[in-house]
Amino acid sequence: MWVPLYLFLAVYYAIFALRERYNLYFSFMWALMGVYAFACAGLYSAPDPEAGVGWQRLQMLSAAFAFPTILMFMSAFSGQRLHRAVVGVLFGTGVLIAIGVYLTPWFFTTTPAAKAFTMWGLAIRYPEMKPGWLGEVCFAWWMLLLTASLLLLIKAVLQKRRGGLTLLCGLALIPLCAVNDILVATDVYQFHYLTEHGFAGFAIAAAFFMLDRFLMARRDLEQQGRRLLLANQELQSLDAMKEDLLANISHELRTPLVSIRGYVEIMLEGKLGPITKDQADGLGVALRNVSRLLGLIGNLLDYATLRDGRVKLKRKTLDLRDVVMESLEAAAPQIEEAGLRLVRDLPTDDTLLVRGDTGKLRQVFDNLLSNAIKFTAPGGEIRVDASRSSEGWIRCAVQDNGIGIPAPEMARIFERFYQAGPARRGQEGAMSSAGVGLAIVREIVRLHLGDVVVQSTEDQGSRFEIRLPRAARTEDLVPPPGAVDKALSTRPSLLLVDDDREVVEFLSLAMRGEGYVVQIAKDGDTALRLCEDQDFDLLLLDLTMAGTSGVDVLETLRAAPKTRALPVIIVTALASDDVRLKCLAAGANDFLLKPVAVENLRRVVARVLSLPTGE
Question: What's the CA gap between 75 and 363, in Å, rounded?
Answer without folding.
Answer: 67
